[in-house]
Amino acid sequence: MGPVTTNPWLIALINMTIVFGVLAALGVLIQVIRMIDPTQKKTANPVAAPAPAAAPAAVAAPVQDDTEVIAVIAAAVVALGYSSEQIACVRRIGEAAWTQNARIEAISVRKECF
Description:
mainly alpha
């Protein structure tokens, strides 16, 4: 007995129907599991929480504790073979500097590839 059909478009249509049918079934299964999830935290009272009091207009920015970050940076420097005394200073830089550094790196990598 030979193949039922040799039409590639019909075979592709059947395969795509099966794939999307299974995806739809998985989506329904996920929604059912989400509705009956016993580990989901239930709210006892759906009463709206009172609005918090208005914050003062001028609040000082909280001081960030960077001791853990500095310790990790010092450990990385020591792992590279330098001493921790060779670290002159550690300071935060703005997010724009990270973005610009990523752009420069992408351009230099692109130049190396071609």
